[in-house]
């Protein structure tokens, strides 16, 4: 080695800060601790999360349900606003509300956070949101991974993903095979845009309309950024309570693909469903997306939830108990439509929206 040779390469020189990662783990431990269930085993920092499976012995024939998801480009809003403690709730919602549609109780989640540069306080804020979401869903956060990818992501960029596992009794699984003609279609209100369609939303507000995140929008009761970052509602415990209080045939989580397509996923081929727009008024943000971008109603309804985050299909005689249960839990809900036999003008296995929104 010559006297003027450059110093040897190191992981730190390549952009990975091991000490920062260890600091992030220490900061997030208190939030992970808030999610623990009696079945949670081990401590954060191990190579794998542990969960006591003897809890499944109370089931006659337990089926494990698994789901995984991310948050999508809503992350761009969090990063631009430098607000990172709510995006975790969106992540949890996308996973656990997919689990509950089959009737499963979420047991535990793991997360994956990929960053361009580990900033311990920011990573801890993300995990705080994930932990708070897990508490709202009644599941444990048993582990995860934080990865630093310099060169792939910018220093302030990150992505998150999560996976969850739940359990349901085999003979209590909800789905299309339970749905019957005459079932009522109940709509459960969303908290806003939730975590889908943000590529369209960002294109409309930023690229076409030129709005800033700081823009105050009277109809929103705050700024554009606050509205776009509003956390996704977690329905899991509400849906489990609904299943316990009333006969439920199917649930449909309204995510990518919009209202009709997600409802159609829980219909058998011989049945058809209608949803009457006159039964609700979408929150102002949906109309604002349409007006600012000249987006057709059909495109909005294919892309966004339009104010409905979950559908529940129940027999007509279960409607009063179902609505009362949801009202007691603070979830706005209403009868939005009905399931009918398929016919020449009602293709089987499909759902359509009819009428116009009440204003």
From TrEMBL:
Database matches in Gene3D superfamilies: PurM-like C-terminal domain, PurM-like, N-terminal domain
CDD domains membership: PurM
EC number: 6.3.3.1
Pathway: Purine metabolism; IMP biosynthesis via de novo pathway; 5-amino-1-(5-phospho-D-ribosyl)imidazole from N(2)-formyl-N(1)-(5-phospho-D-ribosyl)glycinamide: step 2/2
Family matches, as InterPro entries: PurM-like_C_dom, PurM-like_C_sf, PurM-like_N, PurM-like_N_sf, PurM_cligase
Catalytic activity field: 2-formamido-N(1)-(5-O-phospho-beta-D-ribosyl)acetamidine + ATP = 5-amino-1-(5-phospho-beta-D-ribosyl)imidazole + ADP + phosphate + H(+)
Entry GO MF terms: phosphoribosylformylglycinamidine cyclo-ligase activity
Transmembrane segments: none
Keywords: ATP-binding, Cytoplasm, Ligase, Nucleotide-binding, Purine biosynthesis
Family: Belongs to the AIR synthase family.
Listed NCBIfam families: purM (TIGR00878)
Name of the molecule in the record: Phosphoribosylformylglycinamidine cyclo-ligase
Gene: purM
């Amino acid at each position: 080695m010559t006297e003027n040779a450059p110093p040897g390469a190191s992981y730190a020189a390549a952009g990975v800060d091991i000490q920062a990662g260890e600091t992030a783990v220490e900061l997030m431990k208190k939030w992970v601790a808030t999610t623990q269930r009696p079945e949670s085993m081990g401590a954060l920092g191990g190579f794998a999360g542990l969960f006591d499976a003897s809890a499944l012995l109370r089931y006659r024939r337990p089926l494990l349900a698994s789901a995984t998801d991310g948050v999508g480009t809503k992350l761009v809003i969090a990063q631009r606003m430098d607000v990172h403690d709510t995006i975790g709730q969106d992540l949890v919602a996308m996973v656990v509300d997919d689990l509950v549609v089959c009737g499963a109780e979420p047991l535990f989640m793991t997360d994956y956070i990929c960053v361009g540069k580990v900033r311990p306080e920011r990573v801890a804020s993300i995990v705080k949101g994930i932990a708070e979401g897990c508490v709202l869903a009644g599941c444990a956060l048993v582990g995860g991974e934080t990865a630093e990818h310099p060169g792939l992501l910018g220093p302030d960029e990150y992505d998150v993903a999560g996976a969850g596992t739940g359990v349901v009794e085999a003979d209590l699984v909800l789905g299309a095979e339970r749905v019957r003609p005459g079932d009522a279609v109940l709509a459960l209100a969303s908290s806003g845009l939730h975590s889908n369609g943000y590529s369209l939303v960002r294109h409309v507000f930023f690229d076409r309309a030129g709005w800033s995140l700081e823009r105050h929008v009277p109809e929103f009761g705050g700024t554009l950024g606050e509205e776009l970052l509003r956390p996704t509602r977690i329905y899991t415990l509400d849906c489990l309570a609904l299943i316990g209080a009333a006969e439920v045939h199917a649930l449909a989580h309204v995510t990518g693909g919009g209202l009709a397509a997600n409802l159609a996923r829980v219909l058998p081929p011989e049945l058809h469903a209608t949803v009457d727009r006159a039964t609700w008024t979408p929150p102002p943000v949906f109309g604002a997306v349409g007006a600012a971008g000249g987006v057709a109603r059909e495109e909005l309804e294919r892309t966004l939830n339009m104010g409905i985050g979950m559908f529940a299909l129940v027999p007509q005689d279960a409607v009063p108990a179902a609505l009362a249960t949801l009202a007691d839990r603070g979830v706005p809900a209403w009868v939005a439509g009905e399931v009918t036999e398929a016919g020449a003008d009602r293709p089987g296995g499909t759902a359509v929206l009819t009428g116009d929104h009440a204003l």
